[in-house]
Design a protein that fits this description.
four-stranded antiparallel β-sheet, SH3 type barrels, Alpha-Beta Plaits, Helix Hairpins, alpha+beta, 3 domains, rod-shaped
């Protein structure tokens, strides 16, 4: 009974100590992450790299905390290492997708195909990059829906970064009756683009006949603008050119048949 009492006392003491260490450790981890997040050096790092580093540090600190608690409970570290090795192999096989996402997150930080704040299209979704974590990249769609895209899928997909360059080209197509004068319509389109302050002068705006049928002619309109002005120019030109052709008596007022994002 004395031996049993001593054993129970020792076990209960270790368990209580482990519980205390767990809560104290969580508090310390949160404080460390908070202090690291305020380091000025991190402000100079790109947001996606900063988020990834903080996420990885959090996981590392919690692993250290768990190992410390196991040591406090008196479990031999040799046995722990053996169990962890066996469990790690089993978990690796069952979590191949998660490990692929982890590897994808590391590759995203290293190669940086896009950054936080970019408007991208990848893996069948389109949105603004809000956060890059260890396993997922968070996108916000244009209608403000949040999408978590696995990093592994992003690294194996074609990624279109609409925000990567300083300028973009707006492409539009319009149609008119076959009997219309192509030169007249081209001049009207160029006049509209010339009056739009957000359309760049260099490269120069473009408007030409690009095809048609027995009943209609198709015109291609191209205008360069700053990336942040893309959608303003897109909708402004669509409306302004349509109104301009209608005001000048162009038959079959410009019907937009092709558009791009």
């Amino acid at each position: 009974m004395e031996a049993l009492t001593n054993l129970c006392t020792t076990v209960v003491g270790k368990v209580l100590l482990a519980i205390v260490v767990w809560f104290v450790g969580k508090f310390i981890v949160s404080k460390i992450l908070g202090l690291v997040g305020k380091i000025k050096v991190l402000d100079k790092i790109e947001p996606n790299t900063r988020t990834f580093v903080l996420s990885a540090l959090k996981w590392l600190l919690y692993v250290i905390l768990v190992v410390s608690i196991v040591a406090i409970l008196g479990v031999p570290m040799a046995s722990v290492i053996t169990v962890l090795g066996t469990a790690g192999a089993a978990i690796a096989l069952s979590l191949q997708g998660s490990l692929s996402n982890l590897a994808g997150g590391i590759m995203l930080v290293i190669f940086r195909p896009f950054k936080v704040g970019d408007f991208v299209e990848a893996s069948g979704v389109t949105g603004t990059v809000k956060e890059i974590t260890l396993f997922y990249t968070v996108l916000n769609t244009v209608d403000n829906c949040r999408i978590n895209v696995p990093n592994g899928a992003l690294m194996n997909a074609n990624v279109i970064d609409y925000s990567a360059e300083a300028t973009r080209r707006v492409d539009l197509s319009f149609a008119s009756a076959k009997s219309e004068n192509p030169k007249k319509i081209q001049d009207l389109m160029l006049d509209v683009m010339g009056q739009n302050e957000k359309v760049l002068k260099d490269p120069a705006p473009f408007a030409r006949v690009s095809g048609g049928t027995n009943e209609a002619m198709q015109f291609t309109v191209r205008a360069w603008c700053k990336t942040e002005d893309y959608w303003d120019v897109y909708f402004d030109l669509t409306q302004a050119i349509t109104e301009k052709l209608g005001e000048n008596g162009v038959q079959a007022p410009a019907v937009r048949v092709i558009s791009e994002k």
